[in-house]
Amino acid sequence: MTDALTASALATLFTEARTHNGWLDKPVTGEQLKTIYALARMGPTSANCSPARIVFIQSQEAKEKLAPALSSGN
């Protein structure tokens, strides 16, 4: 790859990026989860030493089962 990132792309990645701190009261569809996962799985790791382990839960029962394992900030 020889194409350099534009100044705008670099700014989006490094100087203008912000943590999302708001949520919509709207469910995320299974198709959206698949799309997000397809992008995230291609992200770099340190020599594949930190592979992602992702479980998508959507039912209220699954959320309640997971709740005890979450840290208080979640």
TrEMBL record:
Record domain Nitroreductase: where: 23-72
Pfam families in the cross-refs: Nitroreductase
Gene3D superfamilies for this protein: NADH Oxidase
Superkingdom: Bacteria
UniProt GO MF annotations: oxidoreductase activity
Protein name, UniProt field: Nitroreductase family protein
Organism: Pantoea allii
